[in-house]
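Support case: S-adenosylmethionine complex. Customer-provided input:
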Amino acid sequence: MGAASSTTSVLKSGARQLLGRFGFDIVRSTNNRGGVDDFIPFEATLRAAQSAGLSVGDYIDEVVNGTPGATRATIDELRALGVFSAGLRTVLEIGPGSGRYLEKTLKEASPERYEIYETAAPWATYLVDTFGVVAQPTTGRSLAPTPDDSVDLVQAHKVFSGVTFLSSSRYFFEMARVTRPGGRIVFDVMTETCLDPASVRAWVTKGGAGHDSYPAAMPRSTCVDLFASLGCSLEAGFLVPMGIASTEVLVFRKDA
Ligand SMILES: C[S@@+](CC[C@H](N)C(=O)[O-])C[C@H]1O[C@@H](n2cnc3c(N)ncnc32)[C@H](O)[C@@H]1O
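Agent response - structure generated as follows:
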């Protein structure tokens, strides 16, 4: 084993011990309705990232999830699709968690306003303090404080696989409402594209550690047809890694 891989496995085992010791109860989402209502522990993750010499986002990709470069790969795909090139003035993100996509989005664009809806209060406070974003009051079911047709990019990553069908669907209506005509809506869902028999077997045999409601699936055509009915057309879809299998990122544009 080389020095780099030995360092990585020490980090990984350290992280697992840390996460195991602190458990999933440290950061509990307060308003999650029926989905996976825990997120990774706040203090422990910050400390572990710091001692690994990594940003929190890179630490989660590399050590916690074991998928180095995963966030970067999604951001690269979105850049290639022109998602960041339109001079974004307002961005809204649902469930940013540690801010790994938020941080990289801020490097791609310089929005005047970045709103977050996050049910895990310690992470929301951390993102406000670190990146100067605006944390909106989050009921877990609407984007009510955000006006209609006001946001250039609305995004959510790895959120809708952890909440119920109804929670995701409520957010879908709201995402379409707040996006300005010509703006983009980006989110991932575990569609049938991600659910070939081998992937289902992998989830059944290796997934679901303590959370039988995760991951939640969502039919692709339900999303495409619903957003079409709300005046938003599908521009692209691509697969990204999620846990032991994958999830599908969908990119919509609201008709101008
Ligand atoms: C699996 S984490 C993903 C975090 C981040 N987007 C990422 O990919 O690293 C899901 C996030 O969604 C948040 N969340 C869960 N239910 C939510 C809801 N109903 N509204 C807003 N955020 C929610 C959790 O607190 C957590 O931060």
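The chain has two domains: 3-64, 70-254.

Case will auto-close in a few days if no follow-up is received.
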